[in-house]
Automatic annotation (TrEMBL), chain A:
Species of the source: Maricaulis virginensis
GO biological processes: tricarboxylic acid cycle
Family to which this protein belongs: Belongs to the cytochrome b560 family.
Primary role: Membrane-anchoring subunit of succinate dehydrogenase (SDH).
Classification lineage: Bacteria, Pseudomonadati, Pseudomonadota, Alphaproteobacteria, Maricaulales
Quaternary structure and partners: Part of an enzyme complex containing four subunits: a flavoprotein, an iron-sulfur protein, plus two membrane-anchoring proteins, SdhC and SdhD. The complex can form homotrimers.
UniProt name for this protein: Succinate dehydrogenase cytochrome b556 subunit
Length: 130, 125
């Protein structure tokens, strides 16, 4: 955290002085969607535990009335986050083999993955008739 | 690729965490597992009739449902523990706060894994 920084020497350029670009956005999105997936995995695990012990009544309000739409919206966002993290994670595995570092291609793949993650999300939810 | 690492950093062979490569490797192993499992689990759960309690319980109790859920849960919780660990080690520099968060992260992942696995076995067996 910045508040801990006591070194008086100049600091290397950081987030606030960088112009936004595709590869930066896709890197930050990878962390952000990872954290969202963490929260989603905790929620699904807790739900499985409640189901096993017949205590799902505690969270029944999540699926009733207008709350059902909030829950559905949250799950659609989670589906996008899983799709994005899955696609960009594949890219990370390719990087591990030392491939895919060219600047122009990196920019293109960043845009492609951000957009392509909509496809599995849409396929799943259109199948559910949401 | 250019090399930005200092000679001292190379000799130590350590990253931000201050210890070796095991997290990096296990993070890749769980990533490859999830690459195969996540789409199958998400699709099966979505098509199971969830969130209806009876339909979801029947899905979790079925052999295929229980096995896929248990595999995805195991790889998923291990992957999210090492992933969150990396985030904590990158952004939290105060040793005490960092230790607390690392500990909490491990307890959430390990505790949730054991309890959810128990719940799944209870439903399926």
């Amino acid at each position: 955290m910045a508040s801990d920084w006591s070194d008086p020497r100049p600091m290397s350029p950081h987030l606030q002085v960088w112009r936004w670009h595709a590869t930066m956005a896709s890197s930050i999105l990878h962390r952000a969607t990872g954290i969202a997936n963490y929260i989603g995995a905790v929620a699904i695990s807790v739900w499985i535990i409640l189901l096993a012990f017949g205590a799902e009544g505690w969270v029944a309000f999540l699926f009733e009335g207008w709350m059902a739409w909030v829950t559905r919206f949250g799950l659609i966002v989670l589906t996008y986050c899983i799709s994005y993290h899955w696609l960009n994670g594949l890219r990370h595995l390719v990087w591990d083999f030392g491939k895919g570092y060219d600047p122009a291609g990196s920019n293109l793949r960043s845009y492609l993955i951000i957009i392509a993650a909509v496809i599995p999300t849409a396929l799943l939810w259109l199948n559910l008739g949401a | 690729m250019s090399d930005y690492r200092t000679p001292a950093s190379k000799v130590r062979g350590l990253g931000a965490s201050g210890h070796g490569a095991s997290h990096w490797i296990s993070h890749r192993i769980t990533a490859i597992a999830l690459f195969c499992l996540a789409p199958v689990f998400v699709w099966m759960l979505a098509m199971s009739g969830a969130p209806d309690p009876l339909a979801t319980r029947a899905f979790l109790a079925s052999p295929a449902g229980a096995i896929v859920t248990l595999l995805t849960l195991t790889a998923g919780l291990a992957h999210m523990r090492t992933g969150m660990l990396e985030v904590i080690e990158d952004y939290i520099h105060k040793p005490f706060t960092r230790t607390l968060l690392v500990l909490g992260n491990t307890f959430i992942a390990a505790g949730l894994w054991l309890i959810t696995a128990f719940a799944l076995l209870k439903l399926a067996l």
